[in-house]
Amino acid sequence: MARLADYFVLVGYDPGKRGSGDGQGQILQRFPEKDWEDNPFPQGIELFCQPSGWQLFTERNPPTFFVAVLTDINSERHYCACFTFWEAVESAQPQSHPRNGEGEEEEEEPSSPVQPTQLFAPKSLVLVSRLDHAEVFRNSLGLIYTIYVDGLSVSLENVIGNLLTCTIPITGGAQRTISLGAGDRQVIQTPINDSLPVSSCSVALLFRQLGITNVLYLFCAALTEHKILFLSSSYQRLTDACRALLALMFPLKYSFTYVPILPAQLLEVLSTPTPFIIGVHSIFQSETQELLDVVIADLDGGTVNVPECVHISLLPEPLLQQTREALSMVLDPELEVADLAFPPSTISASSLKMQDKEIRAVFLRLFAQLLQGYRWCLHIIRIHPEPVIRFHKAAFLGQRGLTEDDFLTKVLEGMAFAGFVTERGAPYRSIDLFDELVAYEVKRMRAEEGNKQKILRHIKELAEKLYKNENPYPAVTMHKVQKPTEGCHLRLHQKPFPRLDEGTVQWIIDQATAKLQTAPPAVKAEKKCMVPSGPPIAAIMERNGNALANSARRLEVVRNCISYVFENKMLEAKKLFPAVLRAMKGRAARHCLTQELNLHVQQNRAVLDHQQFDFIIRMMNCCLQDCTAMDEHGIAAALLPLVTAFCRKLSPGITQFAYSCVQEHVVWTNIQFWEAMFYCDVQNHIRALYLDNNEENHTDEESTEGPQEAKSALEIASEQLRLWPTMSREKQQELIQKEESTVFSQAIHYANRMSYLLLPLDTSKNRLLRSSGLGDVESVSNSFVTNSIAGSVAESYDTESGFEDAESSDVANYVVRFINRFVDKVCTESGVTNEHLKGLHVMIPDIVQMHIETLDAVHRESKRLPPIQKPKLLRPNLLVGEECVMEGLRVYLMPDGREEAAGGNIGGPPLLPAEGAIFLTTYRIIFKGTPTDPLVGEQVVIRSFPIASLTKEKKIAIQAQADQFIQESLQLRSCTFQLLKIAFDEEVASDSAEVFRKHLHKLRYPQHVRGTFAFTVGQSPKQAMQPKVKEKNPSLRTLSKNLVKNAKKTIGRQYVTRKKYTPPMWEQRSSQHFPEDNEDEISVSEEMDRSTLTPTTTIKPSDKMTINHLVERACCRDYQRMGLGTLSSSLTRSKNEPFRISTVNRMYAICRSYPGLLIVPQSIQDNTIQRISRCYRQNRFPVVCWRNSRTKAVLLRSGGLHGKGVVGLFKSQNAPTAGPSQTDSTSLEQEKYLQAVINSMPHYADASGRNTLSGFTSAHMSSSGKWGSIRASGRMSSYALNVEIGSRLAGKDLLGGQHNGTPSEASFLRQHRASLYIIGDKSQLKGVKPDPLQHWEVVPIEVFDVRQVKASFKKLMKACVPGCSSTDPSVTYLRSLEESEWLSQIHKILQISVLVVELLDTGSSVLVSLEDGWDITTQVVSLVQLLSDPYYRTLEGFRLLVEKEWLSFGHRFSHRGAQTLAGQSSGFAPIFLQFLDCVHQIHLQFPMEFEFSQYYLKFLSYHYVSNRFRTFLLDSDYERIELGLLYEEKGERKSQQVYKSIWDYIDRLNKKAPIFFNYMYAPEDGEVLRPYSNISNLKVWDYYTEETLSEGPSYDWELAQGQLEHVEEADRQDTSAPQTKRKIIWPCYDNRSRVEPDAISKLLEELHNLEMELGQIPERWKDTWDKVKASQRTEARQEGSRTPSSLLMSSGLSHHRRSLGVYLQESGVGSTLNLSLDSDTSSTSTPSSGKQGGRKSTSTLYSQFQMSESENRSYEGSLYKKGAFMKPWKPRWFVLDKTKHQLRYYDSRMDTECKGVIDLAEVESITPGTPTMGAPKTVDEKAFFDLKTTKRVYNFCAQDVQLAQQWIDRIQSCLSDA
Fold first, then answer.
1. Which of 16, 43, 990, 1124 could cross-link 1119 (Cys pair, CB 3.0–4.6 Å)?
2. Which of 304-318, 1116-1130, 1140-1154, 1830-1844 has the lowest mean pLDDT?
3. What is the spatial distance between Cα 32 and Cα 39, in angstroms, rounded to a whole number?
């Protein structure tokens, strides 16, 4: 029960206190006079009676009534019902202050015109109550006024006394009738449940005044704690509006300033910083203008004004829309049917009171939806003595999926919600409508979503309940309260309100109080019960089901990855890892991770090895990095126990736990997170505490209920609370104590946990790392994280606690303070005793200190760990004799400008960047590693090149990975078109990188050619690294110097020095005898200074040997092949030979760079040669290098002429010469020499037309100096030839006849033609006048020099292998290729060569005399021979060509390749590479003319710079002999596997596999090739652009093979299965020819494998190939026409000039077999290279198949066969082959070539035969049989009858099988 009214107050105008402004009120009387004990009298009532100020009025106003609300210090609300009327003021009083605010002085003048006759002052009757029964108050005060005004005969004291002593029940829906003793009767209804607010119609009115949207704004503003101000000119409406807003907020209670009517004097309250809901009369509207952060609602105008700076968070989206719709259904039901043609007539809104309840029902539903499942996030931390409950806000938001939602977040953080948790959190209390709604109706609301009828029905049901709550008794007995008569307030002579007798009133009150004390207390039995929790959030939130569905696969991946990690399948784990990290973006995957890891912890698998540890750490970090500091999904909470469980042993006794590596996440520094975690743990422990107690009692019950869920903590708590009153005092105390100690022990536990996660691994760093970025690299401790506390948070705490002194930067102090703050908060909240709290504070610093000490040890050890997130270094395979100089340095191989490897626009996997190591060996630089992209992580990437090919090394700066700090990077470029762009890992010290560079430099540029790999191979690499030690014997270098000195002294005598270890087999080798007559000329001179040549270093060679070796050289073999000269054993040389082999240079005295034996015209003497040589640069005088076998024209080469020589040669003979006479004689001799060459040509005499050639173009020549220059224009047509030739060479006249651009009439050259053309450099031949008397003619051309080649090559390398991808779109690959001018140079060389070929082919000799005679000259001369002579297009011939023209004639390989320190400055000039490129271009245009494949050319290109072989070292034969290289190859062959000569190596490989062979080889006899040379016809060589990252360059065959073997092992398992094996071939990774070989290679390889499997010695592929060709030829011959049975059909390739050839793409090795199958020539001619080691021919051709299965040779034996008509009987070896269904025959069993085939398909019958003429005599008649085919009858005869019968049976069975 409660008093209806606490105080009755009479308040009047105070005439005395006039002050400066408005008047004031004063309390005239109050009852009771002394305060109630339980309810003190509120202060300041007089302000609220007249909120707009006390003023006097000039007329009487009608009485007013409103209810103001005052809030006392205990935040209890007092309702002040104010009834105000006006009374006249006695005229004696000084005048009032009218509202117009005029100044006082004015008013006081008597003459003032404003003075009215009568003034009225307000007087208020006020009831103060704690109950809000506004109507009752209105009636009661109205009754008192009526009694006073109408003068009723009722004692006012009695009425007031009764009013103050009236008590009514507070709740329970009781109905109470009261009477104040004036014949009145009022019925008071109390609400059934006082927790539901009473609103009568105020809510509906509020919506009418402001509208739906505005009210929703206000509602959200109130909930999110904004300031709200109502304006209205009606006080009652202000009160109603405020009450309505509060009613809408139910079940939350508003706990800030709440003043529905604010008096004028208190207006400054509006600037308070706290939120409020205040009502103000609208006359003060102007005062509210300057409030910037207040939401102002004008009730009268219906507007809500939200200032700009205020952001009101609205409801989360689906709810906002649903609420709006529901409200409009309630408030405006016509809206639904407004558009209908026949709207229903009955629709109308409910009554105002009902509408009010419906609106509230909408909001009640809204709250039920907003807060559904809130009880599952309550943590109960104490049950006794009273429950302490905390709400886990983050978990609630997380599970509801509303973490991002501003509105709900703010609501949950608000005071109202805190009150809600305190009030409604209790598990055992009485429940109301909201509790039921949130527990039982949520499912229904979910189900009805979107169905308007159902929603409306639900709203109406709720509204009914709310209405019933306010009006429990619908049939209300009518009130009976007297009202004053109308207009009574206007009576003129109204006496003032009487003074009441305090005594009487007090006596009545005392009476009543006494009565109450004697009466028994009315105890209202509260119906307490366990509050239902409702469905858990997870069940409610299923609408996000679709999001979870697609994550099932992801979770599978996460689980698999984790199980791989624990099963140590690291490669598998690594593959899945990126997918796992991506999945971690999803909440489900993170939960899955924590659950899986938890399982492993429970299975005691928490101790990991380093790699597992690293994976787990990375997953945890990834998992945490997406969590906010709130940890709304409980991920950090779930990981917290795991990070203290997983660990790894660093060393005995030192364990590193996972927490030291996951510290940098912001969540650990969030104190709310720790609180929530703490409370959650405490709740679990307290639950356990009571579960243990109750376990025994409940076992039987539970078993009956079946598998019920374990009781939640709240259920246990409510049970306990129910029992609490029944327990004994001791029991209560014991429980309190147990709970308290549980909380205390958890606090200690958490102090430890927090120190784990807050103290960084490296505590020695005094300052907290303020950056959460890179942090401290060392403390990364082999996982990718840093270990600082996220600094920003740390900072905020420091400032907050005010410790901004030096201490604040000390980690330990910071952590101690952080933990102290935490402990203080949670312990006070959860009621830990003070002693315990003090103990904790003492403990914490010790805990932190201890932990710091253990961390120090861990940190120390973890620094020693090898960084293990990096893959193991893979060792590269090395060649025999190749050794590591530097062990692998860990590096990243970065992508360069080539896009393929990085995934680029072609697609494919990003193989780069790759992490691995760089190795430096004596031979190569090798990178070997694995791609960092884990999807291709198991591939191996190898990139390497020979050190000798390094052309440029520069330091660059690149960032390898976003999260790694890179020290330095190198870019190494090689002329094998490879680029290594490497970034050293941070673990590589910079000095190691420096050492690497130094070593590299030393190896790249050795002091002497002896330091190159070809020499050092097999020795220990240390020698290469150490500085040269002085030898006892002078080094070879000094020897050679002396040698050269002496050579200069005694020209004509020379010393040949050889190395010490010249093989002993020399003497025995001289098989050929050489003329003895000039022995003395070669013997070693005696004048030599003995001190320089100790006997050990010189060997006195007999010239037999010297010459013998010279003869063995390539040139000599070639000269003999061409019949260019013979070394006859007699002195008399065969004079009919025009040329002879001269030994004049055998001691390299005349020309150091020429070979020892040279071909010169027969008529020229050796001493002449010596003199002539001086006219030429480098003494390279013209010598013959090739002769056209048909026209007998010769090709000569020489260096360019020295200036004087040139002039002397070409000036007319009789002109006086300025120089000494010697010049004359030499020019004469020179002329004689050239004439001798011309004379050698058989038809030089018929050359009647003289040098008209140059007459044509000399004009052009002089007119345009740069016309043909490569640099000036792309058109090279300035040869001094007649216009036709010029234009044809420029490729203009390509329409003419043959496919090569040769003019149709090749005869025009013959009309006028010089016998000898000298192709010379234009710059040298200036001023030369053509001389009509001579037979030769000079063709001046302009060529590029070596500098241009170098420059062009550099640009070519940059184009093909760019260092970085270009940002400039104009710099494209083709553009930069064009700018390099490489193809222009190729074009130029080809063009000159074709010109020379044509001249030679038409019978003119040509002397190529350009530059020094060893660069372009060599290129041109070699190409000319290659184009003119098919022999050079075979493997053997090409080798000869290179040995002769390039090696013997002294192309300076060492110098051009910059192979030693001396050549470093000159740089790399790829003259030989250019030549090979030209050969490649010709090969592309004539694929059937070359026995070797493109691979052969690439192989040479690679190895001529690689220094793996000695072949291409040094500059000339002379230097090679000087080093003893030239002949040791022959002797010292036994050092196994280390091939010193590239040719030996090629031979060996060629025997093994067809890699160098071109299957399309089918030459035409004597074909001269004339390739197109236009740039449009040239292709960029794929050697420049291709690479094979899987194995590195494929030119070191052993390495590539080695790798293949184990790859194949892996593949082989599934070959048995029939499935198609799809192969993916990546553009720059796989070796295509190996992964997908061409058909023939594949067949040969399979054959080889089959033979191996059957254990037979495999046949050489070459023999097999030759047999196949031969059998094909026989087939063709037999059938007389092409049929599909021939091996391969010829296509229309190459202008139909082949009849039947084998066409296949590049690969392989070859022989000189003639494959054009029309000719019946002896096709078994053995290759000219003559394989001495060839095997005996096998017994049958079909030997390829002999191993595979027995049917292949079903039956074989010897039979006599009768030849065709008139031919004799001959024995032949027959093979019956079921598989091929044929009978083949051979000459003999040993014969490899099938002589004929009888196809069994054509056999008609087989019959016994009769002997015919010439048949063998000894044989029985019955041994004869005949085979009749469709074409003819074959007669056979066997040795005897049985054999004949067997043959017949076999053949019959074959026929029947078929």
1. 1124
2. 1116-1130
3. 12
Task: List residues bridging with 941 in a β-sheet.
Answer: 929
Query: Cα angle vertex 1820, ends 1818, 1822, to 5°?
Result: 155
Q: How many CB atoms lie within 10 A of CB 1046?
A: 18
- Three-state DSSP state, 178: strand
- Say what the pLDDT of residue 1015 is: 81
* Sign of the Cα pseudo-torsion (1278, 1280, 1282, 1285, in order): negative
Residue indicated by tokens 């890892």 = 577
Contact 1143, 1156 (CB under 8 A): yes
Give the pairing of strands 914-921 and 924-931: antiparallel
Structure tokens at 1203: 């200036």
Residue 1346: strand, helix, or coil: helix
Residue 636 contacts residue 627 (beta carbons within 8 Å): yes
Both structure tokens of 388? 């302490």
508: left (phi over 0), alpha (psi -120 to 50) or beta: alpha
Mean pLDDT for the chain?
Answer: 74
Strands 978-984, 969-974: parallel, antiparallel or unpaired by DSSP?
Answer: antiparallel
Tell me how far apart the alpha carbons of residues 1851 and 1846 are, in angstroms, rounded to a whole number: 8
Task: Give me the DSSP letters along 540-608.
Answer: HGGGGHHHHHTTHHHHHHHHHHHHHHHTT-HHHHHHHHHHHHHHTTSHHHHHHHHHHHHHHHHTT--EE
The DSSP call for residue 1081 is: H
β partners of residue 928:
917, 942
Farthest-apart Cα atoms in the chain, separation: 182
Residue 1715 tokens, joined: 């494959």
Is residue 1776 classed as helix, strand or coil in its secondary structure? strand
Cα 758 to Cα 663: distance, rounded to the nearest angstrom:
7
Sheet harboring 941-946: ordered strands across?
Answer: 941-946, 924-931, 914-921, 884-893, 978-984, 969-974, 950-956
Rounded to the nearest 10 degrees, the angle between the axes of helix 352-370 and helix 452-470 is 110
Give the H/E segment covering residue 683.
Answer: helix 671-705
List, edge to edge, every strand of the sheet that includes 24-31.
24-31, 7-14, 120-129, 77-88, 64-71
Look at the block and give the residue holding tokens 């001529």.
1504
Would you mind telling me the total number of residues written for the chain in this entry? 1858
Closest among 1433, 1246, 1254, 1443 to 1331, alpha carbons compared: 1254
Inform me whether the pLDDT recorded for 1220 exceeds 50. Answer: no
Q: How far apart are CA 814 and CA 803, in angstroms?
A: 9
What is the strand order of the sheet 607-608 is part of?
A: 607-608, 647-651, 654-657
1287 and 1277 in contact (C-beta within 8 Å)? Answer: yes
Contact criterion met (CB below 8 Å) for 130 and 6: yes
Copy the structure tokens of residue 624.
């945490």
Cα–Cα distance measured from residue 921 to residue 1071, given in angstroms and rounded to the nearest whole number: 42
- Amino acid (one-letter) located at 95: Q
Residues 6+ apart with CB under 8 A from 1388: 1270, 1276, 1343, 1344
How does strand 1803-1808 pair with strand 1824-1829? antiparallel
1752 contact partners, CB below 8 Å, separation of at least 6: 1742, 1745, 1746, 1777, 1778, 1779, 1780
pLDDT band at 1503; cut points 50, 70, 90: very high
pLDDT, tens only, 187-214: 777 777 777 788 888 888 999 899 999 9
Beta bridge partners of 296: 229, 305
CB under 8 Å, gap of 24 or more: what pairs does 950-954 form? Answer: 950/925, 950/974, 950/1000, 950/1004, 951/975, 951/1354, 951/1357, 951/1467, 951/1468, 953/997, 953/1000, 953/1001
What's the pTM? 0.54
Task: State the Cα–Cα distance between residues 16 and 267, nearest whole angstrom.
Answer: 24
